[in-house]
Write a structure and sequence with these properties.
This protein is an alpha/beta fold. The chain contains twelve helices and 21 strands.
């Protein structure tokens, strides 16, 4: 049932002791990099001065800008010990680069294998990895984890919808790793080919890399006949395998032996109480080549204080509500794109994709929401479509408290790339 029972079910007190020990080791190790040697000295922090886990608060935060500016100054070892690099997807400016030693790659693969195993993946499973192979960590990160676990691994990579379906059929894939927006998008190709994904051998899907709602998960589960598990990670903390759902499908276990998580109020930077949304701040506890201390992710989620019935003691977080920098301010109202998705994906008439465009007309903010409508509803008469448009508008107004301009469009007509979905275009 567990990949590593002694770690996964370690009593909370012991886990905290392990974290403190590893935090000290990491601070010592980080101090060997030019960047942190200076940072830690300025802040007057040394490994030995950390007496409890709360002392982590004395360490300065690290931001994306710090990583960009520091580059290889973050390395704790000579380049001869570095065997790989990855980069963040760079949705917010220049990508940040992360370097790994051989041991870092192995430790990361073990965390991914642990995560996959937790959901019931076993040797003998056929794993189709539909994530980009390359600088993005989603592809190779899962690839190494799946091989370590003992899956027959299909390195399908991203995109090429028809081929994805052929691969699933030809090799009897049982487990998929797929971006959630792409999972819905791919359904149109299944329909064109006259293939029902539920007739294939699929039983599990890992969905992650972008924010998505419970409604989206349910849609994917129904359409594919699988259990879909939320997978969270970021390149700055290795990549996938940072926090992951267990069979309870209720929040993601943070692997606390490898990552120290703080959830903080993004304005005051004080810890938020359990259940309250805040920014995730992570510290590597086992990384060798490029440990990062107190990394401000901008990702928003909350601690779940309840113990999990699965028996794992590593605490859970809610699904990611979005990024601090994703928040839209429209007519003075704060809106997260995920709120729009929750409304749209709860409506059976709505198809796979939607796009939000913000413009300014006569000095006023206007939110346009383009919504793909399922083929069978799009066929209906004009009066039906008008009433549907009205219903969508009202549902969005109830959630957002502003009235968007809703435009219904044909299925599969909104732009769709291979990677993370772009949901918002701000033209203001
Ligand atoms: P990258 O920099 O390419 O490693 O992307 C990491 C970012 O993707 C995270 O900081 C999140 O913003 C987002 N992300 C990854 N997994 C999830 C997930 N399961 N739910 C929501 N957002 C995610
Ligand atoms: Zn659990």
């Amino acid at each position: 049932m567990y990949w590593n029972a002694s770690i996964e079910t370690m009593p909370a007190g012991k886990l905290k002791e392990l974290q403190l020990q590893r935090l000290k080791d990491t601070v010592r190790r980080a101090g060997q990099s030019p960047f942190y040697r200076q940072r830690l000295a300025q802040a007057g922090v040394s490994a030995d001065s950390l007496r409890s886990l709360e002392d982590v608060g004395r360490i300065p935060f690290t931001t994306k800008d710090d990583l960009r500016a520091a580059g290889r100054e973050m390395l704790t070892c000579p380049l001869t010990e570095i065997v790989r690099l990855h980069a963040s997807s760079g949705t917010t400016g220049q990508a940040t680069v992360i370097y790994y030693t051989r041991q870092d790659i192995a430790a990361w693969a073990d965390l991914v294998a642990r995560s996959m195993y937790m959901t019931g993946v076993r040797p003998g499973d056929v794993f189709q990895n539909m994530m980009g192979y390359g600088l993005f960590t989603g592809g190779l990160g899962f690839h190494y984890g799946a091989e370590l676990l003992g899956c027959l691994t299909i390195p399908a990579g991203a995109g090429n919808s028809l081929r994805q379906i052929q691969l699933m059929q030809q090799f009897d894939a049982t487990v998929l790793h797929i971006i959630p927006s792409y999972a819905l998008y791919l359904l149109a190709t299944f329909t064109q080919r006259g293939v029902d994904p539920r007739d294939l051998n699929l039983r599990i899907a890992f969905i992650g890399a972008e924010p998505h709602t419970e409604e989206m998960r349910r849609r994917i589960e129904e359409a594919y006949g699988v259990k879909a598990y939320n997978s969270y990670g970021l390149s700055e903390m290795n990549g996938p395998g940072v926090a992951f759902e267990c069979p309870e499908q209720s929040g993601m276990h943070v692997w606390e032996d490898a990552y120290l998580l703080e959830v903080v109020n993004p304005r005051t930077l004080e810890p938020t109480p359990p259940g309250e949304i805040g920014e995730l701040v992570f510290t590597n506890l086992t990384r060798q080549g490029m440990p990062i201390l107190r990394y401000r992710t901008r990702d928003l989620a909350s601690w779940d204080p309840e113990p999990c019935p699965c028996g794992r003691t590593h605490r859970r977080i809610s699904r990611i509500q979005g990024r601090d920098d994703d928040m839209l301010i429209v007519k003075g109202v704060n809106i997260f794109p995920i709120q729009i998705e929750r409304v749209l994906m709860a409506m059976p008439e709505v198809d796979a994709n939607y796009l939000v465009e913000l413009t300014r007309e006569n000095f006023n903010d206007v939110m346009h929401v383009k919504v793909e409508v399922r083929e069978e509803f799009f066929q209906e008469d004009l009066r039906y479509l008008q009433s549907l448009q009205k219903r969508v508008t009202e549902a969005l107004r109830n959630e957002l408290l502003i009235t968007p301009k809703v435009e219904l469009v044909e299925p599969s007509t909104l732009p769709r790339g291979e990677g993370k979905a772009v949901r918002v275009v701000d033209k203001r």
